[in-house]
Every structure is written in C-alpha cells, then in structure tokens.
C-alpha cells in the first residue's frame, strides 16, 4: 500500500480521561509521521478522528451528534482526497465496533482501545477503497508508548504505567473496553521519563486506571512506590498521577508525599460515596472509615496536600440517608475539587440491572445540594493560599482574557495573573514563576508575578 496520507490534513477531537488524551497524542504522532498535517478546525480536515469515552451516556450523545453533523460540511478548498474520512476510536469504538457504522453510515473507520497502531492503515484503506473499515481487537499486543507521539505541550507529558483495570466496580464500563490490567516494566517507565525530561518536559503525569496496583501482574506485588522513586530520579520538576484507588493506596506510597520533593502535593482519591451500603453495592472494596483513615495518613505525611475526588449521586437504591453520609463526608474532608456525577446507566455492567425507583427530580435535588457543599468547601480550601507566594507552571493565555496568563500551582489550582506589558504569551509559556496570590476564589487563585 502506498502512502496516501501525504499532503492531507487531520483533526483530532478527544473526549474523556487523560488516557484518551495520551492516545490522541499518539494518533497525531502517527499521522504526522506519514505526512499528514494537523489542523485545529474540523472544516479544514481531510481526516477527522474522534477519541471517545463511554463512561457516561452524555459522551455517546455528543459523539453521535458531532459525527452526524459532518455529513453537511464540504471538503476544504485544495483538498486532493475524494471524501473526508471520519474515524472513531477509544472506548466507544471498542464497545460498539461494527454497530457504529450501522448507526452512522457515513462513518469510515472504527478502531478500538487495543489497536491504536492500526489507525493509519485503516485510514489509508478508507481513502483508497471507500467503504467501512472496522478493526477491534480483544486485547493489546503492545503498549501504545511504542508509537510516535506529538505532545500537545513541550513542557508536559503523559506517561502511562498500566493499561486496563481489574476492579470491576459495578457501575463502570472501563474493564470491558480497556481490558485486564497490564503493567509496563519499571525500566521502560524510567527510560521514558528521562527522555521526556531531556526533551523539555517539566511535568510528568503518570497514568493508569489504578496506578496504585502497578506491578502486581509483573512482580507479584504492587510497586507503585518504586515507580515514583524512578520518575523522581529523572529530575523532572513536577510529578502527578491519576487515578488512585483507595483500596490499594499503601503507607509506602503515602510516604512519598513527604520524601520526594518533585511529587506534587495533590492527590485525586475517588470515594464515589460516603455510604458503606452503597460502597458495597458498587464493589469498591473499602468502607468510609478506611477512606477517612487514608485521608488522615496523607495529611500527616503532607499537611498542605490538596485532595480531589469523584462522587456519584443517584446510584441505584441510594436513599436520603445514604446521600447524607456522602454529603457529610464532603463537608468534613474539605476537598479542593470534587467531580460530581449523576449515575449514568451503562449497558453490560452489573449496576445496569439493579432496580431503582428514585424519582429523577429527587436525585437532581440531592446533586444540587452536594454541588453547593462542594463549592463552599473548595472556596474554603483555597483561602489557605491567599496572600502566599506560589510557584506557577505557566500553561498559556487565559481562555477568557488574552491579557492574562494562566497556569497551575503545585496543588493543581488554576492561577491567573496579568501578562506584563510588552511581553508575549509564548515567552512565558512553560516557565515556572512565583506568583503572589492576592485573591482566592472557589475555582482559581489570582495574583501578580513576583519580579
């Protein structure tokens, strides 16, 4: 097959988690390596790739709407392809496969989470032969880290340490679309981290559906603490990780927040519910007392740590008493950020068959109450940094005001400060600067750069 991607253009749209964002960077790297040029707008693209998430129903609806809308968008002027190629990958591609081409007849390519490397070939086949080209494998042959990459930012890198999940929480589709957990060798992770530092990365985010269980399949026991040591030794300025399952968070890992200077004081620790009855129904394999004990240990190791979490409201059978236990846990812990979700039924998961007669308006009212508590807690947590000086890794201009720079504190707070007169955004992007915080809001800090 000759290379039919030369002089084409492509656009990637990403839904969902950080793992999808990493996969999208690999998609960009592969297509660019074959001579296709990335563009920002779908209208300018000969090839459109959707990297999808199916954790919640809203993502399905959004994808179907966006793909359907492409039927009426003409090809760009000067394009030498006969038709725009539309591809869907990620978790919805893995779950639905051939079925997607029946729902969306103008869809050309479907690929799954286990065969990212097949995308360039499938796209070329679609360009040359027309028709539908679907390939969804049951398991991964290689880690996608062996593929070319085009990182979105020079100063930041995603580094997957595991793929797949063995937890089978009853509400979650991920183990069915990402497969069983598989860990990368520690040496490969350390080498990749060193490579990213040499190429200018200041922040590395370790990825896995459950980073805490890293290595159980390779070494017979979890070795995530060793991963943190190895990546810290690369000399990278900042280390983050996601996601961390409470049942596998060990004292050894917690200690790293006290001993590794480049491990950022921020931990995402999904609780999902404060009710032990609901946690059992979710198959989370910890109770609220154990979760609270973990929070105490983490704060003992790193008193200034910023905690974030995920919470599901309206899980089948949740009562007002169950909800109140969640509500009280949120008020007690004082999270910097809480990702709140109304339960989304996913076909094929055990929870999809659990009966529930709770009226939607009751669930919505509980959700709204929780959001109020979350906002109050986040505002309160941010007040601790009012008046302080925080090091900020600058990400670029604020989306709302081009004259403001925006970046992240060690605690992963968004920080805004004015762009100095006469200076360019690009000159500041990727730099770490000290900012004097003059204002602490619910979802961000604001201040002035310290000269």
The coarse overall form would be: globular
Task: State the share of residues found in helices, binned by percent.
Answer: 25-40%
Tell me the distance between the termini: 58 Å
- What structural category characterises the helix and strand content? alpha/beta
Over the alpha carbons, how many angstroms does the gyration radius reach? Answer: 23 Å
Q: Classify the beta-strand content into a percent band.
A: 15-25%
Roughly what is the average pLDDT, rounded to an integer? 93
Put simply, the count of helices is: 15
Number of strands: 19
Query: The biggest beta sheet, please?
Result: 6 strands, parallel
Flag low-confidence runs. none
Strand order in the sheet with the most strands: 2-1-3-4-5-6
What oligomerization state is this entry in?
single chain
Domain MTTase N-terminal: 8-128
EC number: 2.8.4.3
Domain TRAM: 383-451
Keywords: 4Fe-4S, Cytoplasm, Iron, Iron-sulfur, Metal-binding, S-adenosyl-L-methionine, Transferase, tRNA processing
